[in-house]
Specification:
alpha/beta, eight-stranded parallel β-sheet, 434 residues
Length: 434
């Protein structure tokens, strides 16, 4: 079995986590990555098996406008600093996954700067999709394709051999220099399937256990999975979970879970391991988005019990708040700004759920079925061989009784459970066979 099917991920947006400046002057070197290294003992204690780093290579502003794929952003530190972080994570048996931003680069990317200076005479003019007869929003005297109309993000011409070689050589450098264990492919839904297939093959030829997850915010995930990637970000269940809780309609999230994973011929992703989350660096924090804050622990319980690979965004284990508002920076605060003592019940719940996920084979590889389904309460089941794990959730204001079958134990309290269980308001119970 692959390592990434066995563990819980922790997502860090480094520029935010470390409190970096909004804009890069490309001069001042600030050694901030020690702030990440300091957190490693806590992550180890919580039981995380991998850290997913959003962009940390040289960029003008937010990391996705890359200036150099092989130099750590000077607002965070240097390559030696990041190597120490990777070595420390690996020493703690925590894997390292990087954000691969291969659809576009920033305007300060060396090849695009050369095109701006030399125009048709640049050796890099075919690295991008350029029309020298037009003009850009920046008045460059030529038109180029940007990512979804954002012209600070210059689209790469992935069909160009030199571009492919630069990307492959960069990934090899990350593996050789930092020992990375995987990649998250930014805007994977826009990357050509042939590119996904070739890049994944390239990585796995170097390391057969290398993990590749593609970002997909819509569409059929099988299109990307069939191109060879190991996983896809599960935005359908992210949206379905908080919408179901806020609307008092758990049919919504259960419909998505059955549609994706149930033991039926028409389930789309049965036996596949999607990457699941309740929030991330692009969407509002779960604590902010749920109308009734008492339901935050239950949201994490669904995350950990549903099929797939759970990923926790930094600070959300503490109940950090954040609405998108007018910019993404609200979602990406410095770790030092997060109140780590505000919601101890959320932190304790996440800790216990990670340990439970690690100890239960049925939560890693088991089948999915619904047991009880109502608007404001449900019970779902995972089963592998003789091991069963059930999650019963109640988001109503009254206690509810559910018939879930016998021979089960409350896995968090250790007490035996009968056929009928009572779940307190805005609470959950996890049951299982020992």
């Amino acid at each position: 079995m692959a390592w990434f099917q066995e563990c819980t991920f922790y997502q860090i947006y480094p520029l935010g986590f470390c409190g970096a400046e909004r804009d890069n002057d490309f001069k001042t070197l600030s050694h901030r990555l020690g702030l990440v290294e300091r957190e490693i003992p806590r992550l180890k204690e919580l039981g995380f098996g991998a850290v997913l780093f959003n962009p940390l290579f040289s960029s003008s502003r937010h990391g996705y406008d890359t200036a150099d794929f092989r130099v750590v952003d000077n607002r965070l530190g240097d390559n030696a600093d990041f190597k120490r972080v990777c070595d420390a994570l690996h020493a703690a048996d925590i894997r390292v996954v990087l954000d691969g931003v291969f659809n576009h680069v920033g305007r300060e990317f060396f090849a695009f700067k050369d095109v701006r200076e030399k125009r048709e005479g640049s050796q890099y003019k075919d690295w991008f999709k350029i029309n020298f007869g037009g003009n850009s929003a920046y008045n460059d005297g030529f038109w180029y394709e940007g990512w979804e109309g954002h012209y600070d993000l210059v689209k790469l011409n992935l069909e160009n051999y030199e571009v492919q070689k630069y990307i492959y050589d960069s990934v090899r450098f990350w593996i050789d220099e930092f020992g990375i264990d995987g990649l998250r492919l930014d805007v994977g839904y826009l990357l050509p399937e042939w590119f996904l297939r070739e890049l994944t093959r390239f990585c796995k030829e170097i390391r057969p256990d290398f993990f590749v997850v593609a970002e997909a915010i819509h569409g059929d995930y099988n299109r990307l999975l069939n191109a060879g990637v190991d996983s896809v970000t599960n935005y359908e269940c992210y949206k379905g979970l908080h919408s179901a809780i806020n609307s008092g309609n758990l049919f919504e999230i259960e419909h998505s879970l059955s549609r994706q994973f149930a033991n039926t011929p028409w389930a789309l992703y049965k036996g596949k391991h999607l990457m699941n989350f309740v929030d991330n660096h692009d969407v509002p924090r779960i604590y902010s988005v749920l109308n009734d804050k008492r339901d935050v622990p239950a949201a994490f319980a669904v995350l950990m019990v549903m099929p797939g690979i759970p990923c926790v965004y930094y600070g959300s284990e503490y109940g950090a708040e954040g609405q998108k508002g007018d910019c993404d920076e609200h979602l990406r605060p410095a770790m030092s700004e997060i109140d780590t003592k505000a919601h101890p019940e959320i932190y304790e719940t996440v800790s216990r759920l990670i340990a439970l996920k690690a100890s239960r084979r049925s939560l890693k590889y088991g089948s999915y079925d619904k047991v009880v389904l109502n608007n404001k309460y449900f019970c779902i089941k995972r089963e592998d061989g003789g091991e069963r794990t059930l999650l019963a959730v109640n988001i109503s204001d009254e206690p509810v009784n559910m018939n879930v079958g016998g021979g089960l134990t409350d896995l968090l309290s250790g007490e035996s459970a009968g056929d009928n269980i009572t779940v307190a308001p805005h609470s959950f119970v996890i049951l299982g066979t020992n």
